[in-house]
Design goal:
heterodimer, A: alpha+beta, 3 domains, 5-stranded antiparallel β-sheet, 12 strands, 42% helix, elongated, B: mainly alpha, Amino acid/polyamine transporter I, 74% helix, membrane (chain A), UPF0353/GerABKA_families (chain A)
């Protein structure tokens, strides 16, 4: 700024009672200028950390200095920016300044303020999705800026039905939160529930969408995530079209989707890019992997602690041979290895990428081999635990993968307590918990329970698009039909005459 | 007392009645009902099963008729027939009946565990764990109970094809000649069989929770039919697999049949079967506990959440009085007799009473 604080005396005169609070902060800036035509003095007040000075220099100041500035209303006409507002509401000052507005006051009209929107938008460029990476399909991922994220979604659904509602939450963070839904498709009741729950949020600093997940979830004492978070704009657009609601939080590269079901957490958006046979196959593999990951170590502990008769004699020989030197009981052996894997995962997640890779190799190969050679664990269990860990990473949604890994430990405990009976008991508790769980009041286990055969078309398997002409039942959408089945013309071969 | 209407969100779809009925019917009995029926009807035992199954369709029809006439559950029916005080008195008998039923199922299952898996299994601790699970389920409301009935039937259904292993070793000649036994023996077998079939009468208690009760009728009858077919299939497989003398000594014939199942990675399949069975009996116990506590609420206005804890604690206390097989058999016989009286004597009587009361009230 050219004439920055050229006249200390004048600045002090311009002060009103509202300034006192800001003046302490270093980035609070007040500058004075004189219009060249009317020789009227005016002040610019702004937070230098929030304002894009380029906009100020190029699109505001020249016009204010050279134009015919008589009253505060002239600012609106002089400045060629869309976001210009004049007000005499003093309560708006703090809020607007903190949102990156520049305030203009004239020396002869001290109770009127003009605000020019000149926010500095710092955002990193679009990158490829890192958690929900897909080989086929779009490679865009959300970033930390709400404007850009909304743009990414709106671009994919350029219709007037897509409604964006905005709300500011957090007494300190003043986080902008947008709720998106399709008018005329999404269930009103769902929209109202989300709106109400967002309004009821009382928290000081909301720095990520994960806060919102925990604050508005139906049951916050459940290890299961009840809102799906995605970093893929295509997934969000796709689910919006299905009739779900998306919540975009400023500063978070993860957009929330609700209501959701358990099975959705095991479907990757890539499934829709692949042929239905392949994607159904991969989904089944993933569901199998989850069950395997959850149950295999507990079964090992149960069988070797209580039911070794269960194992055929040939297999038993192999098992006994590998366990002959082991001094630990199966449960301790399993806990030791499971915890080692968790340590490796935790260390890998906390360390920088390159060091993390080294740790993975050191941990996986060196510790594993060494503990087998030292006779602490059997190599069969090492294989089982490693496979179980691998299987838990196939879950497309990271948060669900964490849940699955956590659930292994209660299962292990009950397996040690009552063998196979204990595993079934733990399973019963798990199922009961899942039956009781809801997402936005909609059953979480749907379409398994309550059983709805039509919704199975996109669950464990994904049927071809020609069978997907109806929206999922559990969303209770206003418009059930996605497209008119009859209008979709049958494919006609060129060289086949019928 | 007019019954409080049940909100729509607590009601279940009509077709779920099928799962409720089937999961209540299939319980501990499947593991060893064959010996008892075969003792009467020999190789024609499967006909007894069919006869009993079809006879029960008639009782089910009566149950629906009672419910439809009074448009409510059994308590409403009792009040309809006998007035408020006597009606409630009659209904409160069923609190005890379902309490004993859940106790019997729980204790019989523990008996199987003690004989086949863990001879020194602590009755108290396992019952405690199971009761905590049941309380957790019933706290979730009726929909959760139905959900458990659903999964308690669907998830263990993989056990059914396992009986196919025994089929490959079966001797079809065991079945022949058909109709060798006298009609009296077949009917006697059918009478014994009806005790295994008991469970469908729970409709009497949760009728007000069905969304469109009229539509649920066909599902209820279908469920009963499916159970009949399952029991018949297992009976036929059992007769072909066992010789009559061996079967007379097999207390848990179904478990014995699982013994021959083997996969490259599983040798003694019955261990898996028994463990899975705890999921099969879970709906039995849960529905019985739910009915008891629901009746408490209807009759004494006791909060259902408190009622469940009360009954669970009573179960935990009472189960210690049946330490050995002798007492368990005693309990089983008592429950079977009570069940027979309830299903085949009480329900037809109630049906007639309701029909008369309807006529009287009309004129």
């Amino acid at each position: 700024m050219k004439k920055k604080r050229n006249n200390e005396q004048e600045t002090k005169e311009a002060k009103d009672e509202w300034e006192g609070e800001f003046i302490k902060s270093k980035d609070y800036t007040i500058t004075n200028y004189r219009n060249q035509k009317s020789h009227l003095q005016f002040h610019l007040t702004f937070m230098s950390t929030l304002v894009d000075e380029q906009i100020l220099q190029q699109s505001a100041l020249p016009y204010l200095l050279e134009g015919d500035l008589q009253t505060i209303e002239d600012v609106k006409e002089l400045i060629p920016l869309a976001d210009v507002d004049v007000s005499n509401d003093k309560t708006k000052i703090e809020q607007n300044l903190m949102n990156g507005y520049v305030m203009i006051t004239l020396e002869n009209q001290k109770d009127q303020f003009a605000f020019i929107g000149s926010q500095k938008e710092i955002s990193r460029g679009l990158t490829t999705p890192e958690i929900e990476f897909s080989v086929i399909g779009p490679k865009e991922a959300f970033v930390e800026s709400i404007g850009q994220n909304l743009n990414l979604i709106r671009k994919r659904l350029p219709v007037k039905e897509l409604i964006i509602e905005e709300i500011t939450l957090g007494s300190l963070s003043k986080t902008r939160i947008a709720m998106l839904y399709m008018d005329g498709i999404t269930n009103e009741e769902n929209v109202n529930t989300v709106r109400q729950r967002l309004k009821n949020v009382e928290f000081d600093a909301i720095t990520d969408s994960s806060y919102i997940v925990q604050l508005i979830a139906d049951n916050s004492n459940s290890p299961f995530p009840q809102l799906l978070d995605s970093e893929r704009p295509d997934r969000v657009a796709g689910t919006l079209a299905e009739g779900k609601i998306a919540i975009v939080v400023d500063g978070s590269p993860h957009v929330l989707i609700t209501p959701t079901t358990l099975i959705e957490f095991f479907s990757s958006f890539e499934d829709y890019f692949l042929n239905w046979i392949l994607s159904s196959f991969f989904r089944l593999i993933r569901v199998g992997a989850v069950l395997f990951s959850l149950l295999i170590t507990p079964i090992y502990v149960a069988v070797l602690s209580y039911h070794y008769e269960l194992i055929p004699i040939d297999l038993l020989g192999t098992l006994v041979a590998s366990r002959r030197q082991i001094p630990l009981p199966p449960i301790l052996e399993a806990l030791f290895l499971e915890l080692t894997i968790e340590l490796l995962r935790e260390a890998g997640a906390r360390l920088p990428t390159k060091v993390g890779q080294t740790i993975g190799i050191v941990g996986g190969i060196v510790i594993g081999t060494a503990s087998v050679e030292a006779g602490l664990t059997s190599n069969i269990l090492l294989i089982i635990v490693a496979l179980a860990a691998l299987a838990s990473f196939t879950t497309p949604v990271y948060k669900m993968g964490n849940t699955i890994r956590f659930l292994r430990f209660p299962f292990l405990l009950f397996a040690e307590l009552w063998g196979l009976l204990g595993i079934v008991y733990a399973f019963c508790i798990l199922i009961t918990h899942l039956i009781r769980l809801t997402s936005l009041g909609r059953p979480f286990l749907e379409p398994l329970y309550p059983p709805r055969i039509t919704d199975l078309k996109d669950s464990f398997i994904r049927l071809p698009f020609k069978f997907q002409s109806k929206r999922p039942l559990f969303l209770r959408t206003k418009k059930q039909e996605r497209y008119n089945e009859k209008k979709a013309k049958a494919k006609i071969g060129i060289d086949i005459d019928e | 007392m007019p019954e409080q209407p049940i909100a729509d969100k607590f009601k279940i779809s009509p077709f779920l009645v099928l799962y409720m009925i089937m999961s209540m019917q299939i319980g501990i009995g499947v593991l060893g009902y064959q010996r008892i029926i075969v003792a009467e009807a020999k190789n024609d035992a499967w006909i007894s099963v069919l006869v009993a199954g079809f006879a029960l369709q008639f009782i089910l029809w009566m149950i629906y008729k009672i419910n439809e006439t009074v448009n409510g559950d059994i308590v409403t029916a009792h009040i309809y027939v006998a007035g408020n005080f006597v009606g409630k008195l009659l209904s409160s008998i069923f609190i005890i009946y379902y309490f004993i039923l859940s106790l019997t199922v729980q204790r019989s299952y523990l008996e199987v565990i003690q004989v086949w898996m863990f001879p020194k299994m602590s009755i108290f601790w396992y019952t405690l764990a199971y009761m905590i699970l049941c309380i957790y389920i019933i706290y979730g409301g009726f929909r959760t109970v139905v959900g458990i009935a659903f999964f308690g039937l669907v998830l263990p259904s993989y056990l059914f094809p396992i009986f196919g292993f025994s089929l490959s070793l079966g001797e079809v000649n065991h079945l022949l000649p058909i109709f060798e036994q006298s009609i009296k023996d077949i009917l006697l077998g059918a009478y014994k069989m009806s005790l295994t079939f008991i469970g469908f009468e729970v409709v009497l208690f949760f009728y007000p929770f069905i969304k469109e009760p009229k539509k649920s009728k066909k599902w209820a009858h279908l469920g009963l039919l499916l159970t009949t077919l399952i029991y018949t299939c297992i009976m036929i497989i059992t007769i072909t697999y066992f010789s009559m003398d061996l079967l007379a000594k097999s207390i848990w014939a179904s478990l014995s049949m699982w013994k021959i199942v083997n996969f490259p990675f599983v040798e003694r399949f019955e261990y898996i079967g028994i463990a899975t069975w705890s999921l099969v009996i879970l709906p039995n116990i849960c529905i019985a506990l739910w009915i008891s506590s629901r009746l408490m609420k209807r009759i004494f206005n006791l909060q259902q959440k408190k009622g469940v804890i009360f009954i669970a604690m009573a179960t935990l206390f009472a189960i210690n009085f049946f330490p050995t097989r002798v007492e368990v058999n005693l309990l089983n016989n008592l429950t079977a007799k009570a069940g027979f009286v309830f299903t085949f004597i009480y329900i037809p009587l109630l049906f007639i009473a309701v029909m008369i009361a309807k006529k009287v009230k009309k004129t």
